[in-house]
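Notes to self after the call with IL:
- keep both proteins in one doc
- input above output, always
- annotate only the second one for now

Protein 1:
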Amino acid sequence: MKAWALLVLAGVSCVSLAGEQPVANEREQANVEHYQYGMELDVARVIKSAEAPNTCSVEPVQMVYEDHQGQRHTLEYLVSGTGCSGG
């Protein structure tokens, strides 16, 4: 009986921890800056940058970078996809 109770408690803990993950992602999404032509950026180090999608259209991608003060930023910008063929 104790083993069963421990198993149930462990399962509930995992589910509750799994439920907390999207909250962090929502917080990151709320802080996304949208690039506009001519914006001055303070990029000291690129942490993560998405590749252009394999589509034949203009798509948004994101880059995570650190500025010279050590603050992280997420920037969303538009790129042309790489899936166009035949010019």
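Protein 2 (the one to annotate):
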Amino acid sequence: MEAATDKKNLLSLLAEAFDQRGLDHHAGRRKAMELFSAKGLPTAKSEEYRFTPIVRALESNFTAIAPTKSTTPQFLEHLWSMPCNLVVFINGVYSATHSILLDPHIKITRAEIGTTLLSEDPFALLNHAFAETEVTIEVPPHHTIEQPLAVVYCFDQPSFIFANPRWTCRIGAGSKLSVLEYTLAESSSPYFNNKQSFIEVGEHTILELTTLQQGSKDEVLVNNSLVNMASSSRAYCYTGTLEGKLVRNNLTLLIDGEGIDAHLHGLYLVGGSSLVDNHTVVDHRKPNSQSNELYKGVMDGNGKAVFNGKIFVRPDAQKTNAFQSNRNILLSEASNIHTKPQLEIWADDVKCSHGCTTGQLDEEALFYLRSRGLAKDTAKGMLLNAFASETLEGIPNESIRAQVNQLIQNKLHPTIE
């Protein structure tokens, strides 16, 4: 009964905040909020969120006060030892002052939220209703952006922040872009980062999307990402989760052309009492394309993880090759993983497979390393790093891959905390 009251209060807070901010005058926002109110917040009875109690994670300190943009984020420093084009959101609000474009071919515009709903996921609807603005990033046709485009989410307020960053990226035909997403947060910053992105990949275009999640330990994150791919395009999507109280990733790839090559790689390292939930959808709508998906997880302490990977092969998507694999290691008796790979195929001339494994560290390999004089924690860290390193094949950019690998090693040696 108490939980039901809390959920009702959270819904009421959101409805009041929507009215107080005067957002109901906009047709698109009002439409999204009405649909969100009709759906309600997900509960344990909601199939898509049954193992992910986001409401419980939010209800203790949630406030719907509008976020303010810090004028002097002292901690805004570059995480990467390479030049990047920067698109910066501070406390959920886009900051043109701190965003820096090294390549003059990239164009950034801001516009009012549109009326087209990208998803009926409740948190995507919430973002549509509350996002301050729509940030649009455009790359012209037949141009390679040499430096990565880094989308940075900064949080520096000690009070709770309800953030709804939202951006769209359109990559012209024959172009190439590497996108790098990450968070910079002061350790004491509690926040709910309810993010939405939409990437349009043109024909004969290459997208490299690396998402590194290493925010505050009190972070609650919902990451809705939608990638629409045209014919003869390629995508390399990597999602690495190293920190956070509760992280939910909804990654959808629409294979909407022929000759498309899509790769999805993910790694989640879950310790303490954290929870990481990865939901992926690869929707093959046209023939003669392929997708390959590999997600791996390491759980320790009371850490929990969820993986739900869906592959759809539509009736017109003949000659599709689609493969999916989820592999997990449990380091403690209290840790657990809920994994559910799914295939839904309506075409008959396809090659598709999926599978999942869950186990513990190889005791023989651990014994071998210890017999060579290595301490137990060091040997364990080496085995875990070898297990995790395969996912790095999903990062083509060598500089980004090397730095992500270093962050993973720092997390795994001597072992997950």
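Annotation: The chain has two domains: 2-256, 362-417. Residues 59 and 372 are 50 Å apart (CA to CA).
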